[in-house]
Amino acid sequence: MLLTPHILVGVAIITKVQNPILGLIFVLLSHYALDFFPHTEYDIKTIRAKQWDKSGPDFLKVFLDIFIGLVIVFFTTGYSPLILTAATVSLFPDGLTLFYCIFPTNGLFKKHLEMHGAINTVCENKKIPAVLGIASQAAIVALAIFFL
Ligand SMILES: [Zn+2]
User: Fold this and answer.
1) CA of 63 to the centre of ligand 1 (A)
2) Distance 35 CA to ligand 1 centre (A)
3) How far is the CA of 133 from the centre of ligand 1 (A)?
4) What span, in angstroms and rounded, lies between the C-alpha atoms of 136 and 14?
5) Ligand 1 centre distance from Cα of residue 1 (Å)
6) Angstrom distance (rounded) from CA 36 to CA 126
7) pLDDT, tens only, 118-130
8) pTM of this structure
9) What does the angle CA 37 – CA 101 – CA 27 come to, to the nearest 5 degrees?
């Protein structure tokens, strides 16, 4: 799933759950739950292939994706330490995947990658048209903004 929906759902959750610790646990779990939804993603082939010298455009896509999410958060809820923590936690599983690309021998990162990959494979196996994969995320973004 794109990073903007992860951020917005995570922030929506943290604004609704009274207990911040419980809220952050729900935010983390929301990442995996959202990855089950049928979704279309942009390519980050050069990052996955560790072609760091060619990975500038792929990193730009990732940063733009995060930036858009944070701009929407800024205009809907504003920032607080808890909101920014929730946004970070919402992206944590994808961050671990990036760490695996950098440290491929780390067993913990590898185990997480396998689990995270398995969840995303459930989605990939659904073979939906790209337009639906984008529409599903637009719907999630709209729903999250509604709750912000
Ligand atoms: Zn993910």
Assistant:
1) 15
2) 6
3) 14
4) 22
5) 6
6) 10
7) 988 876 667 778 8
8) 0.91
9) 40
